[in-house]
Amino acid sequence: MKKSKRHKNQWSNELNDIIRGASGGFLFGIPLLYTMEVWWIGSHSKPAEMSIAIATTFIAVFLLVRTEGFRKTKNIRWRDAAMDTVEAIAIGIVGAAFVLFLLREIRLETPLQETLGKIIFEGLPFALGVALASGFLSGDRYQSSDSDSEPTINPTVADIGATLIGATIIAFNIAPTDEVPMLAAAISPPWQLAIIAASLLISYGIVFVAGFTSQEKRQQQQGVFQRPLSETVMAYLVSLAASAFMLFFFQKLSFDDPWSMWLSYTLVLGLPATIGGAAGRLAV
């Protein structure tokens, strides 16, 4: 019985580590996933160039794993660091492939070499974020707050403000680019629903599963939107509003444009904005 429980805890800890690593990868790699120059580099890369990129990244990720990593254990052995490096690169490649497929930048009919090139050149920077996951965010506003004397609305206001700041930091450099219209033009309504679901799941994972900060204290907070599900939905809506404003600010959208165009553009930019908003909520 004890052995079964210990085995179950090991799998649970491993899953938490993977989610933490993937969260760090999304925080670090999402801007590059919206960069067409990286798509083009991957599209025209030869197998030898891909191999060199993987080998170079392996060294960088290995050194980062030795100092930070995506697990909570520190000072790991060289052999374990090498295994974690392989896992970090695998997480990076899978995460990048998922987003590229979600954004329709790679499809089932895309040539194999082009697909591999895009995934590798997008996934390797993603892997650096995985290796830095434990060092990304360590803020916890609840450590010094007195929940008994704090008004109920304060945590909600803090989350809204932090979401706006984080969303703006991540999405502000993406909003004026041509990538948003390009991606939006290729995404049909079913894929828009998939983007909404992915945005909510990634946001929830970063804030409530990855273990960057004290999850118990966050979940014990009382407020209008201080439950995991309601907070995630509220933060997503705030991120979408921020995305729409940024697109309007940079004249990518105007009041003369149809609502369907507003919707598609906002959902595409809303994915990185939501990830930035999740980071912002953890950082305060």
Quick tags:
mainly alpha; 284 residues
Question: What's a concise summary of this model?
Answer:
The chain is built from 12 helices and no strands. By secondary structure, it is mainly α.
- Which stretches are low in confidence, meaning pLDDT under 50 for 5 or more residues running? 139-153
Distance between the termini: 42 Å
What is the residue-averaged pLDDT? 83
Helix content: over 70%
Radius of gyration: 20 Å
In terms of quaternary structure, the protein is: single chain
The total count of strands amounts to 0
How many helices in DSSP terms? 12
Strand content: under 5%
- Secondary-structure-based class equals mainly alpha
Spell out the helices and strands N to C.
HHHHHHHHHHHH
Instruction: Please summarize the sheet with the most strands.
Output: none
Tell the overall outline. globular
